[in-house]
Amino acid sequence: MLPINRLNTNTKLTLLKSVSALAPAIILASCTSQTPVQQVPISKPAPVIIIKPSTTPAPVPQPKPAPTPEPKSSYSSFSDWKSDFSARAVSQGYSAYDVSRILDAAQMNSQVISLDSNQAEFAKMPWDYADSAVSSGRVNSGQNKFEEQRSLLSRLESQYGVNAEIITAIWGMESSYGAGTGNSYIPSSLATLAYEGRRRDWAEDQLMALIKLIQHGDIYPIQLNGSWAGGMGHTQFIPATWLEFGVDGNGDGRRSPWETADALSSTANYLSKSGWIRGLSPFYEVSLPANFDFSLLGQKMPASSWRNIGISPIDGAYLDANTPLEMWLPAGKDGPALLLSSNFDVIKVYNNSSNYALGVSLLGRGIKGQPGLQKSWPRYEKALTSFQVRNLQQRLTNAGFDTKGIDGIMGTNTRNAFARWQAVNGQTPDGFVTLTSASSLIW
Ligand SMILES: [Ca+2]
Q: Please, which residues have CB less than 5 A from ligand 1, an ion?
């Protein structure tokens, strides 16, 4: 399987889910930006968008009419792609009957293309993700589900070595414990992405996997509603990942992503096969000493080396001296300091986002009744708009701090370039980009 494929779709999927789960204030603020990003002249200051807390309920944003872009495809029509794909599938040994069971009802879905190409307008702050992950509703439901599935979860924990509360947390993040498994007809979504072409190979691989799963009797053709990006069932596996890691957890002879026991077993199996280490927490919160060397950010060192410079878990958790750990300050020098273990990276195979992995870890703690982060977030800091991020990237790159691309997306390369700029401009080089820390670079 190609992990990156899974990552791309799910990162976007989670982004969308998180956006919809966010405080209405964010949605409101994004509605105040009236000028499309591309049309703002470079010399004009970008609009400052201030998100004010409001005591009155925010108006419900009116859904915009769905844009219907005309896809630019190398095929002259959707049905041309369909017949070509069907012929190729049959030539690869799939039965014409099974191919038609998948493709006959597939229709062009223009909304999938706009969802696939949309980018969030704001680089969100880590507490936005954390707040949404550990909302009281999600934690309470998680505790109930944990009790309800206790025997299955403890069996999975002993069989796969993956903590029961982490499996439960992923279930909560992916489908609200099965309450929202998606209602897009998956063959239409994947066929649309394949026809449009930008991610054709990926989408066609998923369709082939889907045909195989139907051929095996794992999935019934009647049961094919999921996310717009092909996520199926309780833990939103895409078909190729399910084909490789799906497990028959309830012993009925087929692997169904829509069966709780199958989905949770498959999540445990996927994390285990991706290198999950039994008993290791995804992160350990620590305090930074006053003389902390910020060049150690992002570096992996054994627990003993961290201990030698005065850094160890604030809750006194035991750590083997050789355990490699990486320091992460999700919100810079004034926020929580976390030593990440390799299990944090394992969660990211599910969705390649540190904020997602942090959300899963925190939700897991909440489900277990453990305390969240001890250090509070610097909530007074404000995020940049994607226009401002682009602007920052341009200025950093021009000044010799290469951000490896000008794409308006706040990623590791941009944070690292910003930290190098901070180091020579009188700031603590924590790489945390905010309206304050980046003020001299964005206009
Ligand atoms: Ca089963």
A: 248, 250, 252, 262
